[in-house]
Amino acid sequence: MNEKKFIVEYKNQLYDITKFLSKHPGGVNTLIGYNRRNIEEKFLNVEHSPAAEYLLKDYRVKSDNQNFISDESLEVSQRYEVYHINWNAALLPQINQLGDKYSEWVNKPIDRKLRLFKNPLLETLSKTPWYLPLIFWTPIIVFLITNEFIRSPTATSFMFFLNLFSGVVLWTLVEYILHRFLFHMTVQNYPNLVKIHFMLHGLHHKVPFDEQRLVFPPVPAAILSILLYQPIVLLNHFCGGNFYNSRLILAGGLIGYLCYDMIHFYIHHGSPTNKYFYHLKRYHYNHHFVNHDKGFGISSPLWDGIFGTKLFLKKLKYLLKW
């Protein structure tokens, strides 16, 4: 028997959760001592969400002898997909067939890789490693800041950094608005929008552990930044002068966006011990697996508090470890 495998029993079914241990929203330390044991009482006492029980099905295994958990008798079971989605094919062409069940389906997470496009080139371009936004946006930010420093040598350091900081703060508001009103809008009644929604954000809720589907691809991010920059430029006509610089605000906004992307990746795949990031990870996981209609702030819960969508996490007697 291979003791490295972590097998648990729940409702007379066996589950191999070995690869899930470090991803468990409740931490790996809460599972210590449950290898080769029944977790039903523990699972129910902690009040897991329906999404958690749905996710557990992804690890179900078959055994010829349920009374004796032997690695030789375990076989990964084929998941029964009640929504009739073929996970061996590209998902995007299948999304519209979900109809009014799209929202229900997309908020039931699974732990597997997702193929979006049938075309190999498009599929490759749809994946984004965590470091790509850094490579793409850092030179642009440096150029914007350096160029403004050269163009306005008489500008005070205070006003220079105030514009940058204003851009960072503005991004946190944009992040909240986009996440709440665009990424979580109701789209199942609009077939033409369902595919767009799935590409923008739905896929992240469906496969939250896929590291290639987490940070925002540079091309759509660039298009979005150009659109969002237009009202900032428009304000320049009304607030122009030494105290307002639209390009520095843009640079600050891009810095805020990069911080958001890196924080988002870290709280999904890191094991934070810092108090702030530890709270953000618990906060964001609650949004993913329990309360989809709250907790829209990712880099900061500031605007959730202001607009009444703040999550209040249960106080724990121990620290979670991932």
UniProtKB/TrEMBL annotation:
Heme binds at H24, H48. InterPro entries: Cyt_B5-like_heme/steroid-bd (IPR001199), Cyt_B5-like_heme/steroid_sf (IPR036400), Cyt_B5_heme-BS (IPR018506), Fatty_acid_hydroxylase (IPR006694), Scs7 (IPR014430). Residues 1-65 form the Cytochrome b5 heme-binding domain. Pathway: Lipid metabolism; Sphingolipid metabolism. The chain crosses the membrane at residues 130-146, 158-178, 215-236, 248-267. It is found in: Endoplasmic reticulum membrane. Coiled coil: none annotated. Keywords: Endoplasmic reticulum, Fatty acid biosynthesis, Fatty acid metabolism, Heme, Iron, Lipid biosynthesis, Lipid metabolism, Membrane, Metal-binding, Oxidoreductase, Transmembrane, Transmembrane helix, Zinc. Its EC number is 1.-.-.-. PROSITE patterns: CYTOCHROME_B5_1, CYTOCHROME_B5_2. One of its GO terms (cellular component) is endoplasmic reticulum membrane. Binds 2 Zn(2+) ions per subunit that likely form a catalytic dimetal center. SUPFAM superfamilies: Cytochrome b5-like heme/steroid binding domain. Zn(2+) binds at H179, H184, H201, H204, H205, H264, H268, H284, H287, H288. Its cofactor is Fe cation; Zn(2+). It comes from the Eukaryota. Plays an essential role in the synthesis of galactosphingolipids of the myelin sheath. Responsible for the synthesis of sphingolipids and glycosphingolipids involved in the formation of epidermal lamellar bodies critical for skin permeability barrier. This is Fatty acid 2-hydroxylase. It comes from Clunio marinus.
